[in-house]
Amino acid sequence: MGSCSSEKKAEQTSFDFSPTVKILKETPKTFPKQEVPKNLAIPDGMVYVPGGYTQIGTTDGMDFEKPMFWVEVKPFFMDISPVTVGQFREFIKATNYKTYAENFGDGGFFDTDAKGWILKKGVNWEYPQGKDQPKAPDNHPVTQVSWYDAVAYAKWAGKRLPSEIEWEHAARNAKNDRNLYPFGNEIIKDGKPLANTWNGVFPNYNKNTDGFFYTSPVGYFGKTPLGLTDMTGNVWQWCDNWKINYADIAQGIMPTDTTEKVEKGGSFLCEPGWCHGYRVSGRSFTSPETSLMHVGFRCVK
């Protein structure tokens, strides 16, 4: 005959979100100091992101940035800057790849005169505002690339896209900084803008005090304490994972909605009265086949 056990199965206190990220249901008891291993070979153009604990989300933001939850992230390397037009051109030349915007024949363009989004014919990664406008400079972040295009580039480069949790861990300088931005709580210092965002009231007018109506050269506004550029504004950046509900993921419920991918970082179209997406906790969601004039990506490995 069988016997009943009086022992209760221990409740699971963590679960794997990805091979590099673990979701924690409890606050970590200790916070070990993270250091760069001696003699570590850091790939060119990348930064070492130490592993550690980070609290994802915020208590003062959009509903989809709540509730906050703890994660444990393994170390990884992250591109210093978003992939540039010049770097993407090397990929195109090497592979003869055609982007989704090129195959569709159009892409998302924000018409400042009409104050709304349109599908504009002929836009692509070289001409993100259309062929009636100049080519995008090689040192600007590539845009008008779909999530699938970003994944294709990453595979060619021997890298991958970050999950939104890895991205936020890096934006919090791998030590759970709780500032609004990776560099602090102010977007202007000594009268100088610290990021490329919308300067005015969106979509009515843009004072353009940061000097850029559209994208800016990567690295123009300096680096975060971790050594990364363009983690605030300029272009939204594709992340690997599907949109997740924070309340669900904090309880170990994985996403089942596979219609939109996550983007982080905000863009030159973000303005706090409309979209304060360039905060560290900011998020956006777009279908993976979509190409937009304010969305790019960076890679990790």
Q: Quick gist of this model?
A:
With about 300 residues, the protein is α+β, with helices and mostly antiparallel strands.
Work out the helix count: 5
**What is the mean pLDDT?**
94
Question: What is the level 1 CATH name?
Answer: Alpha Beta
CATH architecture: Alpha-Beta Complex
Rg result? 20 Å
Distance between the termini: 54 Å
Main β-sheet, spatial strand arrangement:
1-2-5-4
Corresponding CATH superfamily: paralog of FGE (formylglycine-generating enzyme)
Structural class: alpha+beta
Assembly state (oligomeric): single chain
Low-confidence stretches: 1-10
Number of strands: 16
In which range does the helix fraction lie? 10-25%
Output the helix-strand order: EEEEEEHHEEHHEEEEEHEEE
Structure in words:
This protein has a single domain, classed as paralog of FGE (formylglycine-generating enzyme) (Alpha-Beta Complex). It is globular. The N terminus is likely disordered. 43% of the residues are buried. A hairpin with a 2-residue loop joins β9 and β10. Helices cover 13% and strands 21% of the residues. The protein has 301 residues and is α+β, with helices and mostly antiparallel strands. The protein is built from 5 helices and 16 strands. The strands form 6 sheets. The protein has a 4-stranded antiparallel β-sheet, covered by helices on one side. Strands 15-14-13-16 form a 4-stranded mixed β-sheet.
Q: Which SSEs are present, and which pair or pack?
A:
Blueprint: E1 14-18, E2 21-24, E3 46-49, E4 52-56, E5 69-73, E6 76-79, H1 85-95, H2 100-104, E7 106-111, E8 116-121, H3 147-156, H4 164-171, E9 188-189, E10 192-193, E11 200-201, E12 205-206, E13 236-242, H5 246-249, E14 261-264, E15 284-286, E16 295-296
Parallel strand pairs: 13-16
Antiparallel strand pairs: 1-2, 2-5, 3-6, 4-5, 7-8, 9-10, 11-12, 13-14, 14-15
